[in-house]
Design goal:
The protein is of the alpha/beta class and about 550 residues long. The protein folds into four domains: about 140 residues, Rossmann fold (3-Layer(aba) Sandwich), CATH 3.40.50.1390; about 140 residues, Putative Large Serine Recombinase, Chain B, Domain 2 (Hect, E3 ligase catalytic domain fold), CATH 3.90.1750.20; about 160 residues, no CATH class; about 80 residues. The strands form six sheets. Strands 2-1-3-4-5 form a five-stranded mixed sheet, with helices on both faces. A hairpin with a 2-residue loop joins strand 6 and strand 7. Helix 4 runs antiparallel to helix 5. The chain starts with 6 loop residues before the first strand and ends with a helix.
Length: about 550
């Protein structure tokens, strides 16, 4: 290697974490390389350093890429690149061999000082190929062993890492019932199985009853969302089981190092060591109902379209306050054949349902009540002052600040945990097989690696949960901006809506409708409308038709 003119070289150092095995720090690598260069009369032209960068691929190592670019430009006329060990150059076999080929195309070779490898020699090329392949195989073996350990843990009925499910707490790695949270879990399953409430109905029920979700590390919201309740109902842990591999981390096709989470149709379930919060019988009944509802929604578009009733459950009984639902009366010709369906609203408790009875037996013509409500809205939005008020409201949006902060938090956690996992793999790769403490060091790092995989799973599950919650919010709740836009153009738009779109709009606009116990002298049932939006002022109510809506106008001005 020694010649009359000093051989020009680059040196490259890399660490994947600030916590490195002794002798592998950036400073230690650099000192060793400079001493080697001096001993061999090499001239170090440039130094490149990647701190906190994984050797998994070359894509995330800017200094490495800059070094290869400078080498290819020929501006320094170098003959070698010096690295401390081959693992510092890279631990992806394809990357190492491809980069080495590029270097040799420019007449540049690689020297791994600690490994005693020189790629300018035939034996050096062979050793690099073998060591690169072995490092990658070892990395994959560690991953497989970690996954097998998690599978065995599930088979033994033990909690497999991650935050404890709501209703439980962790004590030395074992699930224990957290009674303050478990009470809500029992209510959710009982209401879901023993009533006709769905997940959205249960979420509203819990909120109206003042039952709040206790904030914890993996969920800051105080309310039970429909999406969260759905995950509770489907989780086997609540009946004393442990599920494994419901979601699997798989490599993204067409990439070398990218992975993503994929839900599995089939997965294993094992008896758990923890105590169940609900009975297996109750849990199975909940699954049967959930499956039936899923099938119903799956085929909903195949069914014949049914009539949509504009004010069902929005109009309230004047006696008991329960929602009123539409019924049909079939008018017949003299010969007994039907010729017309008359729809009317009636109290749902008048026929003694769910143990409740109501004495209000009257029927309110659906067509006339619907028309009265629409006419009231039409008169309100037609007033000149209304458009001016709407323009002041037009860009108000649903506030997702809290959930966006949760998403950002779990993304940051996932990035941190994934980076930690990569750095641990790097550290395992850099272990010296000749070190007398090799096995102890490797065992310690593999324990930390298992914990890192656990934390990745936690972060992925929580990120998946909060992202789903945001999607649910955005799907189920139209923005105020859209509601106001529709109201401004009410005359044009409402007539073009389908029956289901009209119903959706009324649900978003109106909280409830009150009617009189008896039809008024002017033929009206409508007493008052309570709107969900603070847009109808007393000034707007002036000038409405008092003959038809006297009581309505007074109550609207009081309510709003």
């Amino acid at each position: 290697m020694i010649s009359d003119k000093p051989i020009r070289v680059y040196i490259y150092t890399r660490v994947s974490t600030v916590i490195q095995v002794e002798g592998y720090s950036l400073e230690a690598q650099k000192t060793r390389l400079l001493k080697f260069a001096e001993a061999n009369d090499f001239e170090v032209v440039r130094e490149y350093e990647d701190a906190g960068r994984s050797g998994r691929s070359i894509e995330n190592r800017p200094q490495f890429q800059q070094m290869i670019s400078d080498m290819a430009s020929g501006k320094d006329n170098i003959s070698y690149i010096l690295v401390f060990k081959l693992s510092r150059f890279g631990r992806n076999a394809a990357d190492v061999l491809n980069t080495l080929q590029i270097m040799q195309d420019y007449g540049v070779n690689l020297i791994c000082v600690e490994d005693g490898i020189d790629s300018s020699k035939d034996s050096g090329k062979l050793v690099i190929s073998v060591l690169s392949a072995v490092a990658e195989i070892e990395k994959e073996n560690i991953r497989v062993q970690t996954m097998e350990g998690r599978m065995q843990k599930a088979k033994d009925g033990k909690w497999n890492g991650g935050f404890a499910p709501y209703g439980y707490k962790l004590n030395k790695g074992m699930l224990e019932i957290e009674e303050k949270e478990a009470a809500a879990i029992r209510i959710i399953f009982n209401k879901y199985v023993h009533t006709d409430l769905g997940v959205s109905g249960i979420a509203k029920y819990l909120e109206t009853q003042g039952i709040e979700k206790i904030p914890r590390q993996n969920g800051k919201s105080r309310f039970f969302s429909a999406a969260f309740i759905r995950t509770i109902i489907r989780n086997e842990v609540y009946c004393g089981k442990i599920a494994y591999n419901r979601r699997k981390i798989e490599k993204v096709k067409g990439t070398r190092n990218d992975y993503h989470q994929v839900r599995q149709k089939e997965y294993s379930v094992h008896p758990g060591l923890h105590q169940a919060i609900v009975s297996e019988e109750l849990w199975n009944a909940a699954q049967k109902k959930a499956d039936m509802q899923a099938k119903k929604y799956e085929h909903i578009n195949k069914k014949k379209e049914v009539k949509v009733h504009l004010l069902s459950n929005i109009v309230k009984c004047p006696v008991c306050g329960a929602g009123m639902y539409s019924n049909v009366s079939i008018k017949k010709k003299a010969d007994g054949t039907p010729y017309k369906n008359i729809y009317y609203y009636a109290c749902k408790h008048r026929d003694k349902t769910r143990g409740d009875t109501c004495d209000f037996r009257k029927q309110v013509n659906e067509e006339k009540l619907d028309a009265a409500v629409i006419e009231t809205i039409r008169e309100l939005v037609s007033k000149p002052k209304f458009a001016e008020l709407m323009q002041q409201k037009i860009f108000v949006q649903v506030d997702t600040t809290e959930i966006d902060a949760e998403i950002a938090y779990y993304r940051k956690q996932l990035t941190h945990n994934t980076g930690l996992k990569d750095r641990l793999l790097d550290e395992i790769d850099t272990l010296n097989w000749d070190d007398q403490h090799y096995k102890l060091r490797k065992d310690d790092l593999e324990k930390r690696l298992t914990k890192a995989y656990d934390n990745i799973k936690k972060s992925e599950e929580e990120l998946f949960r909060v992202q789903n919650r945001k999607v649910t919010i955005e799907k189920e709740k139209i923005t105020l901006n859209n509601i106001y836009s529709i109201l401004i153009n009410f005359e044009k738009l409402f007539e073009t809506f389908s029956d289901s779109e009209r119903r959706q709009f009324i649900e978003l606009l109106i909280a409830e409708i009150q009617i009189y116990p008896d039809k008024q002298d002017n033929g009206q049932w409508l007493k008052s409308i309570t709107f969900k939006l603070p847009i109808f002022s007393e000034e707007l109510l002036e000038g409405l038709d008092k003959n038809r809506h006297v009581e309505t106008c007074v109550l609207l001005s009081k309510l709003l």
